[in-house]
Design a protein that fits this description.
Blueprint (H helix, E strand, L loop, with lengths): L1 E7 L2 E6 L3 E5 L8 E4 L2 E6 L2 E4 L8 E11 L3 E7 L4 E7 L2 E11 L2 H10 L1
Antiparallel strand pairs: 1-2, 1-5, 3-10, 4-7, 5-6, 7-10, 8-9
């Protein structure tokens, strides 16, 4: 089964076709497609292609399913015997995507032609 490791929002994700995952907020409307060009690694069975730092020509295409918010994270600050306590919280904004295809680009087809 083919998979790739992509970088988006300062994080790295292992993705395969059909996977659904939440990434940091993307400026794309639900129902549209987006392309990730920062592919760090591509693996198909025993064939592994890693980048230096990126795999040139590789792209991962995904469909945006929805824009949503993560669970609320509450941080409670407290100092004993001082009467000081503060509650702050936030909710991360996320984009839920579904991976449609992983393309290695022209390099893969050129490599196959030279092997044959």
């Amino acid at each position: 089964m083919a998979y790739a490791i992509i970088r988006t929002g300062g994080r790295q994700f292992r993705v395969a076709e059909g996977d659904t995952l939440d990434v940091d907020l993307l400026d794309v409307e639900p129902g549209k497609t987006t392309t990730f060009g920062d592919v760090l690694l591509f693996a198909n069975g025993k064939d592994v292609t890693h980048g230096d730092p990126l795999v040139s020509g590789a792209k991962v295409t995904a469909e945006v399913l929805e824009q949503r918010k993560d669970k609320k994270v509450v941080a409670f600050k407290y100092k004993r015997r001082k009467g000081y306590h503060r509650t702050v919280g936030h909710r991360r904004k996320l984009t839920r995507i579904k991976i449609k295809s992983i393309n290695l680009g022209g390099n893969k087809s050129a490599a196959k032609k030279t092997e044959e």
